[in-house]
Please model this.
Amino acid sequence: MDPDLTETFLQDAASVLGALEDATVQLWLEEGRPGALRDLAVLSHRLRGTAALYGHPQTAALAGVLERLLEGRAGFGAEVTSALVGLLETAQLCLAAALTRLRAGQSEGDVGLDFSRRGGAAQLGALLRAYPQSFRPVAPDGEAEAASSGPEASVPFAQTQPDLWAFFAPEARELIETLRGQLAEDQPDLNAMFRAAHTLKGSAAMVGLAPLGQLGHTLEDLLGQVREEALALARAAPLLGAGLVLAERLLDQAEGSSPAAGAGALDGAALDATQLDGAVLDRYAAQVQALLSGQPTGAGVGAGAGAGVGAPDEAAAPLARLTVRLDGEQLGALQQHVARLVTGRARLGTLLTQQRTLAEQLDEAHARIQQTIRDFEERHLNPTLGAAPAAGPQAAGDGGGAPDRAPRFADFSVLELDSYSDLNVLARSLTELSADLSEIRSQGRAHLAQLGDELTGLEKVTRALRGDVSRARLTRLGRATAPLHRWVRERGGLRLHVEGEDLQLDAATVPPLAQALLHLVTNAATHGLEPQDERTALGKPALGAVTVTARAEGGQLTVTVQDDGRGLPLAALRERALAAGHLSAAELAGLSAAQTAQLAFLPGLSTARSLTREAGRGVGMDAVRSAVEALGGEVRLDTRAGAGTTVTLALPLAQQIADVLVARVGGVRVALLVSQVQGLRPLEGDTAAAAGEGDPAAPGAVADLHALWGEVPGPRRSVARLSSAGGPVDVIADEFTQLEEVVLRPAGRLLAPLGYLAGTAVGAGGQALPVLNPSGLLAAARRPAAGAALRAADPAPRAQRRILVVDDSLSVRKHLGRILTRAGFEVLAAADGREALGRLLTGADPVDAVLTDLEMPHANGFEVIEGLRGHGPTAALPIVVMTTRTGEKHQRLALALGADDYFAKPADEGLLLRRLDALLAPAASRARAARPR
Model:
């Protein structure tokens, strides 16, 4: 077995074995015995399933014996408990010995024989003979358990497959919320809804939840008809909402939790976790098929969202939970950092108290200064305020007054007695206050230094904690690729090789990346790899190979998915793109092979000849691009005929907390991820020379942030070179100011369309910081030239041009007439080819362009083209074909006869107007000059 899979099993089995030992100890406590028995049954079932999944049948068999012995037990007396504990301890010794052998690289060994040698079989027989009533199979309500019921019916999927559930459940709930959110929108994104249903179906089938996969397939069928406009969304909404409630109930049942209130009903029957069986799902699928075929859907689904299978209730689904596995060392490191933070916080609290004491002393000193100054003012500046009343005769003769002091000092000279004036007193007081203030300042500086040291230490601890938390969020890439191995094993017919599964990435990246990889491997198996007999005839190995390679460098994770198949069918891609109305035949003819391959990312585009559970819906590559772009990454595709296809996913490895380099662009501050910065330099010369100033061997595209933000450049500017999946890009700003540690946030729905934004953050000063995406900047750097080319080709005003619409369908003529009239054209109409030729060849109705169908009575579109091209005055007239015939032979004939472009009917309005503008721009002046008015 693969060493990584063995290690995964050993970690999980060791965890289960430890929990079994703990629960066995709890059996001795009477109040904890029922719970311990339930735990022992669940843990035994979990170990049995995991061991069987990883190919250890004897370990699974022994765990199965324990499970069957313990399931459904409510409690025992002390005598039964003693015998049971002895049996459990013997079984656990055997299981531990098996794990030890596996850890040493050996097989599991003869677990059953070891159990018998240790006396386990004898203990089991004695226990059942001595206490037959205690171990009779019973259901949870105390009645006899049905013979057909088994452990799979009572133990939830989340407990039997915890690893798969930790990966699958958050993604599934997020997909359901996506569908529910879009359903509530005024203008829902049908492509996004279809992708979500498709992914839910595939992911559920991948992990083995067949009922949910069946439900996802039904939802996909329903949304497919809505997307193709065969069914109005308003009619499908009740069943869609009911299906989402069913999906939530299936997840609740798989998790082992109780469904929320208001689960809804199917044909009047309330739904609960125990009723979600095949019959319920079959009834729901039957109602969907009835709706799609135009038949009555039954009483269960009415006109409102409140009817049907589980109408959407107001209770929100549980939020997607991010789960990661931590080992003891990681938890210990986190605990140490937390302890250091607590200690640092306590020291900072002490220092804060000391600073408050100093502040009080300063307040007292300030009050003393004010009082001294007031006394001085009263004594000298306003002497009357502080003077004593004059001594009068009455006072002098008052026997109660103070005795006359003058005679006492009569014998002392001035030199023999120090005298202090008010100025002396003030000076001494100020001197004392100054000394006090100096002492307080000295203590304040010392405390501030201590505060600085503590903050520096706290910053170090915070950074260390940040690093450990970030590492705790990391998980192996193998979590995203493990479902691929299972999918390939179950499907067969190809070989899968994965490199780089030990790479670490953020756990939040795993679900969307796993979704993208599953789509890519499915596409490779379905579209890329030839059948075995065809491969043998070509000299290739009979089994096709798909290789997934991952590497991390420059702050990015790059994952390539490569197959050795036939390559993309470029002709089929062009045909499907034409039929879907994405591009016209002339635009498709101008695409290179590499550009044609990119058509695979268009929504709804599929080259499959038939609709299956794996292919034909045109959602795979579109879902890949959406998932990767949501992570701030990009997708590249390369294909070679007969040699296979390579798809490259480039994702940022930045964590939620990251170091950024702040740049100033005029009055705006933006941020660049430090992990993506390759170098800084001052800008010498103009913007055009910026790319050549760096590494001449690897010149990069130039993105001037001033132009992007509409800011005026300063006199001095600097350049930062950033790494991106598409190559280096040189970013110009006024200056790069400082490094900051920020918390990254997603750009959000409003800013998500701006490809040059990787997210947002809050700077140290509290202001918002846009965090730039190098790949988006690279695309933006190339956009101005294309925009200038488009502006240079602006056509003349449409109001000056006339178009003849030739079609035998009155509704088509009216529909196209409204579109073209609304766009500013003057529209003429002809019911067939003969009428069109009669009007144009005679010169009765000169026009600037002709828009014609192919299949028409009297004269078809080919004859119209041939007739106009053979007549001198109309030989250069732009002719556009719009028809339901999108086959290559029809296109070739029409273009060979002289048609300028070719559309599938009904054509996209924007595409039609864009191509007409492009065709009429060079001929507008010539046609107007020749046209009589």
